[in-house]
Design brief:
A hairpin with a 4-residue loop joins strand 5 and strand 6. With 170 residues, this protein is an alpha/beta fold. Helix 1 packs parallel to helix 3. It has a three-stranded antiparallel beta sheet. A three-stranded parallel beta sheet has the order 4-7-8, with no helix packed on it. Strands 2-3 form a two-stranded antiparallel sheet. It is globular, with a radius of gyration of 17 Å. The longest helix has 14 residues. It contains five helices and eight strands; from the N terminus they run E-E-E-H-E-H-E-E-H-E-H-E-H.
Length: 170
């Protein structure tokens, strides 16, 4: 991996919603200046617990858009990649040949989610394995994943997001 990932950027919690006139709106709720690593179960639990406290609800959903490694067989890929098998949500640090990657394993993600979800969308490569579904079976009622690599910028969020926000469970 090449590139410069030496400038840290604080994770940001944003709220996407429809205003009183039905127009899409976005608010920045919190900037986590003290969170150096967002790709960890601890960070995910911290943010989701804050959401649960600030926005108590009967129903929650989650969309994760990041990289994913799937459920690789033992010995597949480079040694630096093997540790990331069955992982998503990576975070890079460093630059050039000394770039390091931190991943959240699927079991770690499952343990980090403090509430039950109506749906979970993993817009990440190779998440459509039965092993991933098994790890998340008690977390969400519906799971949307791709069994293949996602070779574009991901799902069509400009259309999909607002349709999802209008969804009302009977």
């Amino acid at each position: 991996t090449s590139g410069n990932y030496t400038t840290p950027n604080a994770p940001v919690l944003m709220r996407f919603y429809r205003d009183a006139q039905g127009k899409g709106a976005v608010d920045t709720l919190k900037v986590y200046d003290d969170m150096a690593v967002s790709a960890s179960g601890e960070s995910i639990r911290r943010v989701l617990s804050a959401i649960q406290e600030a926005f108590p609800a009967k129903h929650y959903g989650m969309l994760i858009s990041s990289h994913g490694s799937g459920w690789w067989p033992a010995g597949y890929g480079k040694s630096s990649e093997r540790a990331s098998a069955r992982a998503i949500g990576n975070q890079y640090s460093g630059s050039g040949r000394s770039v390091t990657t931190q991943w959240v394993t699927v079991p770690e993600l499952a343990r980090a989610i403090p509430m039950h979800l109506d749906y979970m969308i993993l817009d990440v490569c190779l998440a459509g394995a039965v092993e991933v579904a098994w790890e998340l079976k008690d977390v969400a009622d519906r799971l949307v994943v791709s069994p293949t690599e996602i070779l574009t910028m991901g799902m069509g969020y400009s259309m999909l997001s607002w349709d999802m926000l209008a969804w009302d469970k009977p």
